[in-house]
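Sorry, can you check?
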Amino acid sequence: MPAIDAPIAADHSASIVVDVPFGIRGGLPVLGSAFPPQSMVLATADHHPLADAFISRIPATTLAGIKQHPFYAALLNAEGGPHTTTGAQRKAAQADARHMHVGWVLLWHRTGRVASLLRRTGFHLDYRAGGVTVYRRSGR
């Protein structure tokens, strides 16, 4: 795990780390895909906010708030969601990621659609370690 997390831990910007698959599991309803439990271990090690969680009984308003973020909506679509993300939605997703201060995205399972979305919303491949592909927001 240190090979995956060392560069993130060295970044003291407090930017958000998003794990992919991205999902919210709070009883019912369920949003997104299941995520690897290792992501929670990394969050405790690198001291960055984690945009992934296993939360019991999250309020509907919390789930609605997450769904309203264009970056998360585009990410969920790229993971196999019901919609195709348009160019305008990608632009909104890029601005949203910047506004939320998303600095890193960890792909635990490589998928072409997610990688393409990340590149098109301002992220670049930074490194690979331990089977994880790590993207970093460009221009930071």
Notes: The two ends are 24 Å apart (CA to CA). The first strand starts at residue 16 and ends at 20. The chain has a mean pLDDT of 83. The helical segments are 2-10, 38-46, 60-67, 70-78, 87-100, 112-120.
